[in-house]
């Protein structure tokens, strides 16, 4: 019986022919041309390939208490398999409590499987490979960190739906929300058994359900939110064309439902327990498209003036969103009222807009810290854009009595931003994205 060779020579590997393993090997000796029979290439890893995680993730979160990791031995084996991927650290999260259990090693206590009496396993296997424990964990994170930024999902109601037998619409919405939350917070991949799931996995599963479902063309609030969250995911992955397409899709659908009207029809506002603050949904879409278009230097698809919802009393998160919308409405003074203005009137328009922005202030200074930070950063960002417009039109002068028209204005904005962010921590800025944390550190 011929003994299997441990390593083929470099020439046989390149030519993809069978090697005898001797030196020189039979193939090299019988070759019509002179070749060097060498064994310099290192031996590659044998066995099945490990799924590569997108990006440069160096850590992973392992969900315990899910039924797949039920003892210290299971945890240790799972930890070894994770570290074999080349990752630096492992964080263990107990699904029953949502708390961090241990770091950089196996857990030191037993975990029992989470109850799932009302769950039809076959139903989920036919629709998605993402376990409900993973989706529930990320919805919890949305509730803790991202609700103040996107106050449009009733997280407790969505979690309750996920605990029973959710329909495809709920699964799609939960996956889109998970993709956006993981991308916005740059969460490490979640390990469930031997499968690592990141934001790309969530978005891909959402798109699979979206394309496979015959009712995907049905227009409702949930489908609009799916498009919005997919926009957030693609924007954070720097896929600009897809991100712009999804937010414009959401805006178009909201227009067709009449969400941009002064009075929204009762049919559109039908009770849906998983959607919160429906009255500000179009405002959130409008702000998102305006901000992303400004970032890319593009023209937004919705150019009509925004109709600001009228609330006598609302939550601090919604109030913060309303005041953020006021910032964008004030900034629109440049493009809508003075589009065909002369150089002199355009300079006056820039100065008037900057003065109006400077005069605005958040009425709830003690509101959600993330919302206050978002307001301050957006305000100074807009003032910088106005100065860049003045610079592009050669309106700056070192002798101007208006700060906006001088070369020192960016320093003025920088000082104002640092003063407004005093007292904020990195955790306050994290729900706004890692780019804002980088700005805070700078």
UniProtKB/TrEMBL annotation:
Residue ranges occupied by any Zn(2)-C6 fungal-type domain in the UniProt entry: 8-39
Record organism: Aspergillus saccharolyticus JOP 1030-1
Record PANTHER family: GLUCOSE TRANSPORT TRANSCRIPTION REGULATOR RGT1-RELATED-RELATED (PTHR31668), MALTOSE FERMENTATION REGULATORY PROTEIN MAL13-RELATED (PTHR31668:SF18)
Chain ranges passing through the membrane: none
Matches recorded under InterPro entries: Carb_Metab_Trans_Reg, Zn2-C6_fun-type_DNA-bd_sf, Zn2Cys6_DnaBD
Any one GO biological process: positive regulation of metabolic process
Name of the protein: Zn(2)-C6 fungal-type domain-containing protein
Residues spanning the signal sequence: none
Subcellular location: Nucleus
Keyword Transport included in the entry's annotation: no
Keyword Nucleus: yes
GO molecular function, one term: zinc ion binding
Record keywords, A-Z: DNA-binding, Metal-binding, Nucleus, Transcription, Transcription regulation, Zinc
Pfam families for this protein: Zn_clus
One term under GO cellular component: nucleus
